[in-house]
Amino acid sequence: MSFDSLPLWLLLAIFAAAGGVILVCGIRLTGQADRIADRTGLGEALVGGVLLGAATSLSGTVVSVTAALDGRASLAFSNGVGGIAAQTAFLAIADIVYRRANLEHVAADVSSLFQCALLVLLLSIPMVAYTTPEITFLGIHPASYALVIVYFGGVMAQRRVHEQPMWQAVHTSETHEDSPDEAQKDMRGNMWLIGAFAGLMLVLATMGWVLAEVAGELTDRFDLNASLVGALMTAVVTSLPELVTTLAAVHRGALQLAIGGIVGGNTFDTLFLTLSDVAYRDGSIYHAVSSQDYFWLTIGLVMTAILLLGLLVRQKSGPGGIGFESVSLLGVYGGAIALQAIG
User: Fold this and answer.
1) Is the dihedral of CA 265, 268, 273, 276 positive or negative?
2) 50: which of 10, 39, 117, 170 is 20 to 30 A away, CA to CA?
3) For residue 140, what are the β-bridge partners?
4) Which of 4 and 17 is assigned the larger pLDDT?
5) Has residue 235 got a pLDDT over 80?
6) CA 72, CA 168: separation in Å to the nearest integer?
7) DSSP characters for 35-74?
8) Neighbours of 40 (CB within 10 A)
9) Start and end of every Sodium/calcium exchanger membrane region domain (predicted)?
10) From CA 16, how far away is CA 8, in angstroms rounded?
């Protein structure tokens, strides 16, 4: 399908329609993930961080890979790291919606702490790549290999942290327990649920390809800044499932799932860079992008550090029931958008 001959109104309509489909799929995915967490006994934080995080990030993955295959390094890179910043800001919105107390206080879980620390490490690896010589093995920068190794090593370690925690949150009157709503079932009884989940993931992947093609055409036709398009257009639209699933999880009372889905999705999003580096055939993608793209990576790093501090401090409530971290997250993200707009 070619998008270069389509009129502007139709391009925008396709972009909006794809975003709408992603939104609907995101709503369905939350309920499926919550039931999978209950039936398998893996827990909301782990399922939210790994399974739901990967599923809701799938459309964004396809956007980055498609853009990299088309030689659009900046769009591919900024889509990935811009989504991390946007999704972390969504968590602050969820904190505002949850009126009882600060969300980071009530949903304290060692898995979420581990995920935040892992994400800080993963976001640091591209910065190391940027400051080192442009070298590749089989056309791929060593940092891309490191991202995969650290990510999957972190996933295995997180499972161990969940099953044998060496740290426990202090329980207060507002602390929320992750208690299953459904009894555990064997794998055969869960196959239809997993199949439906996989089907929704396939739809998300297809919509990601559509968004990438439309965004690329808009960038070329109107000579737009690819970094801005990636960070504030495709990244935000493909992050809509994270916003929807987070708010839906808060509404369902699955608070660990809400935080785990955001941080886990952000952790998975760092693999966008590896996949983009593989798809980009003109050298290291870490050296083919501009400082504007790394600006959004550092914003994501700062926001993750703030979130980690909030999970550790566990402020019970602040103005309007939200903590200092939510106010800071929205301030940092809003400030970043303003700087990009005037820059």
Assistant:
1) negative
2) 170
3) 137
4) 17
5) yes
6) 45
7) HHHHHH---HHHHIIIIIHHHHTHHHHHHHHHHHHTT-HH
8) 19
9) 11-128, 193-340
10) 12
Read off the tokens for 120: 């800080």
- 238 contacts 83 by C-beta, under 8 angstroms: yes
DSSP-assigned letters across all residues of 224-280 = --HHHHIIIIIHHHHTHHHHHHHHHHHHHT-HHHHHHHHHHHHHHHTHHHHHHHHH-
Question: Rounded CA gap, 181 and 199, in Å?
Answer: 24
Helix (H, G, I), strand (E, B) or coil at 184: coil
- From 72-81, 113-122, 125-134, 264-273, the region with the lowest mean pLDDT: 264-273
Cα dihedral value 69, 73, 78, 80, nearest 10: 40
What DSSP string describes 80-111?
HHHHHHHHHHHHHHHHHH--SS-HHHHT--HH
β-bridge partners, 137: 140
| Mean pLDDT, rounded, of the chain | 82
Domain 8-167+176-342 belongs in CATH node 1.20.1420.30 = yes
Short-list 14, 105, 62, CA closest to 235: 62
Q: For residue 171, give the DSSP letter.
A: P
Query: Quick check: 169 and 175 in contact, CB under 8 A?
Result: yes
- Eight-state DSSP code of residue 286: G
CA angle 141–282–83, rounded 5-degree value: 65
**Element holding 10 (H helix, E strand):** helix 8-40
Residue-wise pLDDT tens digits, 208-219: 888 888 888 888
What integer is the mean pLDDT of 26-49? 68
Domain map (residue ranges) of the chain: 8-167+176-342
In angstroms, the CA 297 to CA 314 distance is 26
∠189-193-198 over CA atoms, to 5°?
Answer: 135
C-alpha 226: how far from chain center: 20
Q: How confident is the model at residue 183 (pLDDT cuts 50, 70, 90)?
A: very low
